[in-house]
From TrEMBL:
Protein's name in the database: DUF6532 domain-containing protein
Species annotation: Meripilus lineatus
Domain DUF6532 residue range list: 2-142
Domain of life: Eukaryota
Annotated spans, Disordered: 198-219
Pfam families given in the database record: DUF6532
């Protein structure tokens, strides 16, 4: 079970690494100093989460979210966000948004020095637990204060991802041969753990790695 969680983290970080440069306008021709400067600007107060990081316009709506989620969970008809269990992504869950947020953070930190250094910045539970919980709390608080707007945002993200996947929505009327309990028994892992960064016992806080602690917990 734990190996599967680690595998998902690795897959998502790899995809995030392939997104951050082009998505945030970072070019190798800028040189190490300018790249490092830009990365710090993006990491500050988690500016990278905004649709426009420079003006902090529309939080948690940067196109990196759609690209990352599209590649990981909406890539084809058999993907988790598209197939028979698509209802678990409608609207897009808060833990999934928080998970992507820290994955993008981790990928940006790889460039913090101005050159690509993925080691020792591993996307591990110990290093990014604190960052994940900070982001998830902020999302949860936001939803409590503005439930309508937050649900609308999450539903919009889901609709955009379904459209980008190019696959038709599953006809739920054909899925009544299994109830939810039976379907859950068929899953290899529990959804509420898969898309979080903490698959181990919540009572164990672990060590907060320096990567997570120094990268915008005040979001």
């Amino acid at each position: 079970m734990y190996q599967r969680f680690a595998q998902v983290r690795g897959e998502v970080k790899t995809k995030a690494q392939g997104i951050v440069l082009a998505n945030y306008g970072i070019k190798l021709s800028m040189g190490p100093f300018k790249i490092a400067e830009r990365v710090e600007e993006l990491l500050k107060r988690r500016n990278y989460t905004f649709l426009d990081p420079d003006t902090r316009f529309k939080p948690f709506q940067n196109t990196a979210y759609l690209i990352l989620a599209g590649q990981q969970w909406f890539c084809d008809a058999s993907a988790l966000g598209v197939g028979p269990f698509h209802f678990r992504f409608d609207p897009l869950p808060l833990p999934t948004i928080a998970f992507m947020t820290v994955a993008i953070q981790c990928a940006l930190i790889d460039w913090r020095s101005g050159v690509f250094k993925p080691k020792p910045n591993h996307f591990t539970l110990e290093a990014y637990r604190k960052s994940y919980h900070v982001v998830l709390k902020r999302l949860t608080d936001w939803q409590k204060r503005h439930p309508g707007k937050m649900v609308e945002l999450r539903a919009c993200m889901w609709s955009q991802l379904r459209a980008l996947s190019g696959t038709p929505r599953v006809d739920d009327s054909e899925d009544d041969f299994l109830d939810e309990d039976e379907m859950d028994q068929e899953l290899e892992y529990r959804y509420d753990n898969l898309y979080t960064l903490h698959p181990v016992d919540e009572g164990h806080d672990g060590e907060n790695g320096e990567n997570g602690e120094n990268s915008g917990e005040s979001a």
